[in-house]
From TrEMBL:
Keywords: Signal. Residues 1-22 form the signal peptide. Residues 157-223 form the Transglycosylase SLT domain. Residues 91-128 are annotated as: Disordered. Residues 91-126 have a biased composition (Basic and acidic residues). It comes from Streptomyces poriferorum. This is Transglycosylase SLT domain-containing protein. InterPro entries: Lysozyme-like_dom_sf, Transglycosylase_SLT_dom_1.
């Protein structure tokens, strides 16, 4: 019978060998003498299965197999745990990316809704031309104050830029060579009659017509101002 020694004990049989622990050598006929010497030198404290009473050998062999099975199961558990941790990490990264995208979408939606509410509020505060009492004459400050109340806040500066270039806020400004008239230099000035019969003397009527013209042709006073900058007319 071949015998194999391990640290602690060895398991041997006539046809096969089962070991527990670190194998330190093989004895009795199947290996060179040098191996036997090494075996004897390093495993003096080992126990051979042949030295174990026959009634206990089955228990030792069973313990050996159980330990091997436990080691394999432990390795499998460690591998499964590592795989699960990696899967969890990947999923966490995906979840974080999805949450970030959702948060950005929500913020963008809130920003647009806020802008829309502000625009509606601005437009709701706009006064009509008929809301202003008619005066015999108007100063530049009077006309500008009327314009601020009639034009949405985010469009006033663009409207003002055009009026500054066209008439310097003089509601009676006239171009004798072209026939253009008023704050926005409507051409001909009589076009503004569609906004009110007092288009020649009432700046509110001229502002109303000018705003409608810019909205219908360019989308807004700022659209008209962009065109004016490129062409120096609108």
């Amino acid at each position: 019978m071949s015998r194999i020694s391990v640290r602690g004990f060895a398991v041997a049989s006539a046809t096969a060998v089962t070991t527990v622990g670190a194998v330190v050598g093989v004895a009795a006929g199947s290996t060179p003498a040098a191996d036997d010497n090494n075996f004897e030198a390093t495993a003096a404290d080992t126990t051979l299965l042949a030295d174990i009473p026959a009634g206990q050998q089955a228990q030792v062999q069973t313990a050996s197999l159980t330990q091997q099975a436990d080691a394999q199961a432990s390795a499998a558990d460690a591998s499964a745990k590592k795989s699960a941790e990696e899967s969890a990490r990947v999923q966490a990264a995906k979840d974080a990316k999805s949450k970030k995208a959702a948060a950005e979408d929500r913020l963008e939606k809130e920003r647009k809704e806020k802008a829309e509410r502000a625009e509606r509020a601005s437009r709701s505060e706009v006064r009509s031309a008929s809301a202003f009492a008619t005066q015999g004459s108007y100063s530049v400050a009077d006309v500008q104050a009327m314009a601020r109340q009639m034009i949405p806040g985010d469009q006033f500066q663009c409207f003002s830029n055009i009026v500054n270039h066209e008439s310097s806020w003089n509601y009676r400004a006239s171009n004798p060579s072209s026939g253009a008239y008023g704050l926005v230099q409507a051409l001909p000035g009589s076009k503004m009659a569609s906004a009110g019969a007092d288009w020649q003397t009432n700046p509110a009527t001229q502002i109303k017509w000018g705003l409608n013209y810019m909205d219908s042709r360019y989308g807004s006073p700022c659209g008209a101002w962009s065109f004016w900058q490129a062409n120096h007319w609108y």
